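Sample pair:
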Amino acid sequence: MRIVSKNQAIAHHNSPDCAVLEYPFGDPDINGAVSRLNGRYPAQGFVTNTSCKEMAYVIEGSGKLVVESTEYCFSKGDMLLIAAGEKYYWEGHMTLFLACTPAWYPEQHKNYP
């Protein structure tokens, strides 16, 4: 059993519109974060996680996730799953709980213009 307190979370500001609290369990198989987005992430283009699946639960708000050229609209209470290697962007006003498996690391994250 492991627990990470909020005061142990690591704050990241991925863009002016996107703030993330990462909860560092130190487990290579899974990790989690809470993300607040007010706008678009990334600001332009797409991103991908090259090695991990990303599951997102919408705590509050609504928006859209664009994967390649397909748009998915969602709102509070919905859950989404992004496969490793899919190019995507988020847009809207929301708070998400994110879980990644295997654990997410910065070198897995790629931007596409």
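The longest strand covers residues 53-67.
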